[in-house]
Amino acid sequence: MAEMWVITVGFIICLGLFGGMFVYFLKSALNTEDSKRIDRLPGQERKK
Question: CA dist 23 to 3, 15, 33, 45, 48, Å?
Fold first, then answer.
């Protein structure tokens, strides 16, 4: 029974690490300022 808990907790930790790395590298590869430049909210004036 303890072996199943250890395997389950280890699997959850691995999923968290891989998910965290995926999000980190995805955010570092994408330029988040593009979304603000391309799709401005109504009422925002354009900066030049």
Answer: 30, 12, 17, 31, 32
